[in-house]
Each structure stands twice: as C-alpha cells, then as structure tokens.
Amino acid sequence: MKQLSKTALKALSVSTVAIAAAQVSFADTVMLSTIDGRTTLSGELLDYDGQNYTLRTSLGDLILGASEAICEGDACPALVAETTNLSIAGSGTVTANLIPQLTEAYFGKIGDSLQREDASGGTTYFEIGREEGSDLLMTLVHSNSSKGFAELVKGDLHAAFTTRPANDEEQVAAKDAGMKGLRTEAQESVIAYDGLMMVTHPDNPVRAMTEMDIAKVYSGEIDNWDAFGREPGPIMVYAREEASNSRDLLRQVLLEPHKTTLSQNVVVLGSDAEIADAVRDNPDAIGLTSFVHREGVNALEIEGVCGIRIPANEFTIKTGEYLLSRPVYFYHNTEIAHDGVTGFANFLTSPEARKVIREAGFVDREVISKPLNDQGLRVSHTIMRDEAYDNISGTKSMLQLMSRSDRLSTTIRFDNGSTDLDSTDYEDLEELATLIRSPEYERSHFYFMGFSDSIGSAELNQFLALQRAEIVRQALVSRYPELADRVGARSIGYGELSPLACNETRPGRNVNRRVEVWVQDPMTKLAEKISN
C-alpha cells in the first residue's frame, strides 16, 4: 500500500481529528483534498482509524493523514476538532534564553492568543488559541542535547534544539528507528551560534590565561590567584553539570588535551546564568559561561600552547575559529507529520527570527565581513610560524591578496582527511548565495581559500586544501548556477600557511582544516589598476 508523500500533502493546519460517530460507511466514493487545496483525490474509502484515511484510487491504495486532508462525501466520518499537542525539547541556555522568545514571535503571530505557563519540573507550556482551526498546545521540555536526541528518535518529540550535532551513535539509533538519519538537510539546521567564555569578576586584573593554566585551575593544581601575579586569594571554580554541553566542551577542548580531569572541589551549578551571576558576585571566582551572559564579567582571552589567542566575538564565533564556539541546532523528526513544526522550522531562518536571536544575545547566521586589519593578530600569527619561512613566496602572495580583500564569515570545516560537505555546510552556501545575489556584490570576485592542519607533508596539505576549496566552489556553482554570471570565483590552496589555532592539539587542528571565503569588489580592483 502506498503512503502519499508529505511533500505532496504539505499541510497548513495543525488540527487533529477524532471520531465523533461510531458508524462509518466504507467502500463508498469520497473526495479528499489537502488543506491548502492543491491536491484532490477521489476514490473508495476503505478505512479510517482516527488518524489516517485509506483510499482506493486509480493510482492504487493510498494512505492520507487525517490532519492533512479534508474529506467530502456521504461516507466521510463525522469529525470534531481537538487541541493539538506539539512537543519540543531544548538544552540549557537555549531553553532559558532563546526558545521562548522564538516561540512567542512565531506562534503569537499565527494564533489569536498565546498564553505561557512555566510549570515545575522544567517544563514550559504555550497555549495558542485560534478562531479558525484547533488550538495548539506546545510543550517545551527543559532538557539537554543527549536527552533531546534520544526522545526525538523514540518519537516522543517533534523537534529538539541542541548545542551540538548528532553523534554517530545517535545517527545509528535514528536509522534503527526507521528514520533516514538526523544529519540530513531535511531534519538538521543551524539557526544561531553561541560560545563559551572563561570569565572572572570584572575587577579581576587577569586578562588572559593559557589553555594549560586553565586546565590546572580546573584540575586543582593551581588553586590561588597569586599564581597569576594577583594578590593572593583562593580560586573559586565553577562548572556546569556532567550532562551539559558546557562540561563536554570544557573536557574536550581544555582538559583532555592537557591530560587533566575536573577537581572534586569545583562547584557545580545548573545553568550558565547561575555561573555568570556567581562570578559577578565573587572577586575570586572563575567560570565557563555562555556568550549570552557576557555583560558585567571579565572575559579572558585563552592562549593556545603555540601562543595563538583568538578572542570571543561575533565574527570569531560565526567562523568557528574561537575554540569554544557552539552552533545552536534545530532538529525535527520529519517522520512525524506536524505542519506546526514545518512552519516553525521555516520561521527560524527568517529575518524576523534573526532579530529575535540577536536581541536574546546569541549570534545570528547572517554573513558579515572583516578586512585583514580587523582580524586581530592574524598577520603576526602567520609570519611568526616556521611554515611562513619555508614558503616565503606563498606567504607573501597570500597576505597581499588578503590585504586587498575582505573575509566573509562563511567558513567551511572538514574532518581529518575528509572532503565531504554536510547539511550545515550547504546551509552556509545558501547564506553565501543570498549575499552574492545582493546588488552591492555584483561583479565582485570571490576567493575560496583552503587551509589545512600541519599533520603530514606540506605539499600534500596544500593539495588537500586546494581540493577542498574547489569542492566548496563547485558546490556553490552547481547549486546556484545563476550566480556564475554575477561574480567571479577562484579556488586557492594555502595549506599550513595561516593557522588560526594551535596544531599541537586536536581541537586546534579541527579549526585549521577549513575553507575561507574572501571577496574583492570591482572598486578595489579598479583602484589597483589606477595605482599601477
């Protein structure tokens, strides 16, 4: 028996239905129409189970969800509208500071009334009333990324906001449950960015720490501020609970690379907001908290083992070169038909949603640009590396091109040895395509610059960097062929020449395997010709 595709039956209503009459006459001709009126089918009604119609048509026997269709004919069961339930989970700071605002912005717009109730036990309810169609009750479960994925795979959730991508084990679980996976373009989307900052009291004179020093503070090896040239005082260390993404990043980026573990004396708090508040109140405190809570604290610059420092700001978080960047993901189970989720998912990438994201303190996905001079210590980091002396001509050529161009925040990263793009990479290319279509970029020239870590030979790394840059360029051109007439584009491989993090650690190498996008506009090129 065939299941009619959800794409063909795209629904605009969130109403569910129930049987109101016990007697239903089948094997009579009825007409089923989608809510939007775009699809109409006639045939014999073979069955109705309260959720689906089974219809015999010239195309064969088809199953249509009752929430997706209107039935006309004497054989149609009598139906009555009920309240529809929509279940979404979110993790940590996202649940507290972003999802409620996005929910109110979208569902408040499509409904006639919206009421919010924060219940005990970590649940928020939104009741959306509508004059036309059924009411909608949205349940927001305060959870974490791991639990969100587990409940989504089981079918207990329609969607989940997470601060990390689905891992291999979760991908397998999703496929075992009959889903196509989680990391697909249909089900995965990055809607915003956040970052974790190491923060101290605003009066604390310490402005930077090395990764090693932070690892020693959190392991308890360093427990007094006099180790950093400050007046003596015991260091009060705060961290999030074990299941949080914040704890995962602390362990993966700062503790494990330096072979340390968390001290039992660390004070564990239940939210990033609590950590920020505790640090603001205690001159001797240090903690890891969200970029959202950056006001009123002293954010430390974190220095890698090779001396590279990358501060946390909007640009470095968007590009992912800040080591503790974390995208905010939205996953929804397309196997569970609910057009309320579809509409919400579409809204999350809209300009209106981006305004909400910025106002909530997160970083939105809009592509921004920076000239070389505004990218901190990048030039000095580049020329002080041994690779620069090994390839002086390449370094000079790269810096000359960069000095005449602006770097866009669009940055594509690759796994070790991989040249594959994932669903979020294609989202980045869609954002880039939108920018290229704008009038101010017409006839500009775009450079796709590939970079690598320093593992392996320099020649192989340069080849791999160029290969990745060309793959990104080709992906853009093949998806949006109309852009070829608007701009010029070229792929370049610079290999190891411009590391943005330390190659001595795995997180640093992950940052360095990337393709950057730079743009040189026609006025810049015209100025070059005049000066020559």
Characterise this structure.
The protein is an alpha/beta fold and 532 residues long. The chain folds into four domains: 2-81, SH3 type barrels (Roll), CATH 2.30.30; 84-193 and 327-359, Periplasmic binding protein-like II (D-Maltodextrin-Binding Protein, domain 2), CATH 3.40.190.10; 195-318, Periplasmic binding protein-like II (D-Maltodextrin-Binding Protein, domain 2, 3-Layer(aba) Sandwich), CATH 3.40.190; 367-531, OmpA-like domain (60s Ribosomal Protein L30, Chain: A). It is 32% helix and 28% strand. The protein has 17 helices and 26 strands. Strand 16, helix 6 (245-255) and strand 17 (267-269) form a beta-alpha-beta unit. The longest helix is centred in the C-terminal third of the chain and has 22 residues, at 458-479. The radius of gyration is 27 Å and the shape is globular. 40% of the residues are buried.
Give the overall silhouette.
globular
CATH 4th-level superfamily of the largest domain = OmpA-like domain
Please tell me how large the radius of gyration is.
Answer: 27 Å
Main sheet record: 11 strands, mixed
The share of residues in extended strands comes to 25-35%
Low-confidence stretches: 1-25, 525-532
Give the name of the CATH architecture of the largest domain: 2-Layer Sandwich
Average predicted local confidence, pLDDT = 86
Query: Could you please say which CATH topology of the largest domain applies here?
Result: 60s Ribosomal Protein L30, Chain: A
Terminus-to-terminus distance: 72 Å
Count of distinct strands: 26
- What is the domain total for the residues? 4
- What is the structural class? alpha/beta
Main CATH class of the largest domain: Alpha Beta
Measured as a percent range, the helix fraction is 25-40%
